[in-house]
Amino acid sequence: MYGSARSLAGGVLTFFAVPAGLALPAAVLWIGAFAAAVVTHRRVCDAAVRTRELDAIKQAHLARMLLAWDGLPPARHTAAEPEHPYASDLDIIGPHGLLRLIDTTTSAAGSARLRDWLLAGTPDSVMIARRQALVAELRPLRTFRDRLTMSARRPAGGEGTLQAWLDDPHSAPPVPLAAPGRACAAGRDQRRAGDRLPVRRGRGTAAVYACRCTSC
Questions:
Q1: Half-sphere exposure of 115 (CA within 13 A, CB side)
Q2: 84 with 66, same domain?
């Protein structure tokens, strides 16, 4: 904002330096230029924030590929229920568990859902096949998945925009997304059927559903 303050000071000096007949046009031009500078500055700042967020997402992907545990987000679940038949033996839960390695969700509720899927005592073969089909569709859409994650972390328009998109398949998405395809449509169908999670700032339920699909 230092540049904006300097522009403001320059505009004031210009206003008093021009002849009286040109003062009003000069003021209008200066106000327009200042407003354009503010808008441009805001866009540049937003772009810088998005770039940092995307870089963090890419770094987490790389850490998962290399099994670099220090580069992963902290584990949300550190211990399984003692009576679970295989959670501890197979390292499903914990700082070096499977859940932490594949958990790309953006909320505690989404992470808990993925944990429940991994610890399900009686697997549903039909549901597993359906999730695998969704994963297969989302796998090549790397840019889409990353932008979807960013949308979940920073929902444009707040909670209501994402919830409206989730409830109405014909509404506009919260951010421009490239060809979401059948995967997100299936996610909306499942959630309209009653499988809903609370929406809060920094989280998008539709986006998190898709991210959970990539982690199945």
A1: 21
A2: no
DSSP letter, residue 80: -
Give tens-digit pLDDT for 68-80: 999 998 888 877 7
3 state SS of 21: helix
Q: Are residues 111 and 205 in the same domain?
A: yes
One-character DSSP codes across 145-159: HHHHHHHHHS-TT-H
Q: Is residue 182's pLDDT more than 90?
A: no
Residues 6+ apart with CB under 8 A from 12: none
Looking up tokens 């009003």 gives 24
- 100 and 67 within one domain: no
- Which 8-state DSSP code applies to residue 7? H
Q: How many residues does the chain have?
A: 216
And the tokens for 51? 């770039």
Whether the per-residue pLDDT at 133 is higher than 90: the answer is yes
d(CA 157, CA 165): 11
- Separation CA 92–CA 101 (nearest Å): 10
Q: Phi then psi for 137, rounded to 5 degrees?
A: -75, -35
* Contact criterion met (CB below 8 Å) for 213 and 133: no
Structural domain for 127, as ranges: 77-213
Domain final residue, candidates 50, 72, 94: 72
